[in-house]
Design goal:
The chain is 33% helix and 24% strand. The protein has 276 residues and is of the alpha+beta class. The protein folds into two domains: 130 residues, 4'-phosphopantetheinyl transferase domain (Ribosomal Protein L22, Chain A, Alpha-Beta Complex), CATH 3.90.470; 114 residues, Ribosomal Protein L22, Chain A. Strand 9 and strand 10 form a beta hairpin. The protein starts with 19 loop residues before the first strand and ends in a 6-residue tail after the last helix. Bound molecules: coenzyme A. Coenzyme A binds next to helix 3, strand 4, strand 6 and helix 6.
Length: 276
C-alpha cells in the first residue's frame, strides 16, 4: 500500500455514524472470473505489484478482492473515489489510512481466506477482523496444544469430537481478531489470553495489562465453511452496534466504479488496435 505522488483531496466526508461497525464479507465463489482484472485496476501500484507476485491465482484473487472491498467500503463511508485512498503501515504491519487524508477517526481491518474475504470499518475504535476456512487441512488440535492458552486447550479437548473443529476456528478467529485489533499481531503471545465459549468472554493474563471490559467480540458463520470474528476495543464506553452483511460483486463493481470496465477493450485500446 504505497503513497505514490498523491495529493490531498477535499471531497472526503464521513458517512459512517459513530457507534456503528460496518463489517462486510464477500464469497469469492460468486465472483465472475473477469472481475479480477477489473478490480486490480483500483489498487495502487504497490498493491498491484504485490498482487502480481502471488504464485497461485487463488491467493492473488483473495488479495485483490480484499483490497477492492476495502477501497469500495472506504468510498462508501469516507467519500473519496476508491482509487484515491493511501495507506501507511504500523510497526507490526497493521495498515491504517495515510495521515494526509485527515480521517484518523476512520479505522479498518481486512482479512482473506480461501474463497472469502472480509473488511470491517468503524469510527474511533481499534478493530480487527479474521475470516478462516473451517475446511482448511491441518493438525488443529496439535496447533492449539502448541499455541493456545491452557483454558482454551482444555475446552477443546473436553468438546465432543463433532464440535472440536467449530470450537477451534471460533478460538482461532477470535484470537486473530484480537491481535489484529491491537495491531501487535503475532508479537502477542497467544497463550497469554484465553477465550471462553459458548458465551464469548476473554480473560487476560497480567502480562498483557489488558481488560475484558474494554473489548467487544462477535463471531458468525458467513458461509457454510467460513468463520468470521470481529474484535473492537470500545475502551469501556459500552458496546457498539456491529452490522455484518454479505457484499456481492455488483456492489464492489459499483463502489469501485469498475462495473463497465471491459478488460478486452482496454487492452485493445492500449495496443492501438481500435479507434473506439
Ligand atoms: C498478519 C497477522 C496479523 C494476520 O495474518 P493472517 O490471519 O494470516 O491474515 P488475514 O488475512 O486475517 O489478515 C491479513 C491482513 O491483515 C492486515 N494486517 C497485517 N498485519 C497486521 C497487524 N499487525 N495487525 C492488524 N492487521 C494486520 C493486512 O491488511 C493484511 O492484509 P494485506 O497483507 O493484504 O494488506 C498475523 O496474525 C499472522 O501472521 N497470523 C498467522 C496465522 C497464525 O499463525 N495464527 C495463529 C493461530 S491464532
Amino acid at each position: 500500500m504505497g503513497s505514490g505522488d498523491w495529493q490531498p483531496q477535499s471531497t472526503a466526508r464521513l458517512t459512517l455514524p459513530p457507534g456503528i461497525a460496518a463489517v462486510w464479507w464477500l464469497d469469492l465463489a460468486t465472483v465472475p472470473a473477469h472481475r479480477w482484472a477489473a478490480w486490480n485496476t483500483v489498487l495502487d501500484a504497490e498493491e498491484q505489484a504485490r498482487a502480481a507476485r502471488f504464485v497461485r491465482d487463488s491467493d492473488r484473487q483473495q488479495y485483490i478482492a480484499a483490497h477492492a472491498l476495502l477501497r469500495g467500503m472506504l468510498h462508501r463511508h469516507g467519500g473519496l473515489d476508491a482509487r484515491s485512498w493511501r495507506f501507511i503501515t504500523g510497526d507490526h504491519g497493521k495498515p491504517s489510512l495515510h495521515p494526509d487524508h485527515r480521517l484518523d477517526r476512520l479505522r479498518f481491518n481486512i482479512s482473506h481466506a480461501p474463497n472469502a474475504v472480509a473488511c470491517g470499518l468503524v469510527l474511533d475504535h481499534p478493530i480487527g477482523v479474521d475470516i478462516e476456512d473451517r475446511e482448511r487441512p491441518g493438525g488443529h488440535l496439535q496447533l492449539a496444544d502448541a499455541y493456545f492458552a491452557p483454558a482454551e486447550v482444555a475446552q477443546l479437548h473436553a468438546a465432543p469430537d463433532a464440535g472440536k473443529n467449530t470450537m477451534f476456528f471460533l478460538f482461532w478467529t477470535l484470537k486473530e481478531a484480537y491481535i489484529k485489533a491491537t495491531g501487535a499481531g503475532l508479537s502477542t503471545p497467544l497463550d497469554q489470553f484465553a477465550f471462553h465459549a459458548p458465551t464469548v468472554r476473554i480473560h487476560f493474563e497480567p502480562s498483557l495489562a489488558d481488560h475484558d471490559a474494554a473489548w467487544q467480540f462477535h463471531t458468525l458463520m458467513p458461509t457454510t465453511r467460513h468463520t468470521l470474528s470481529i474484535a473492537i476495543r470500545h475502551g469501556g464506553t459500552g458496546p457498539l452496534t456491529i452490522l455484518p452483511r454479505a457484499a456481492n460483486h455488483q456492489e464492489v463493481d459499483r463502489l469501485t466504479n469498475t462495473g463497465d470496465y471491459d478488460v478486452n477493450l482496454k487492452s485493445r485500446l492500449q495496443s492501438g488496435e481500435t479507434g473506439a
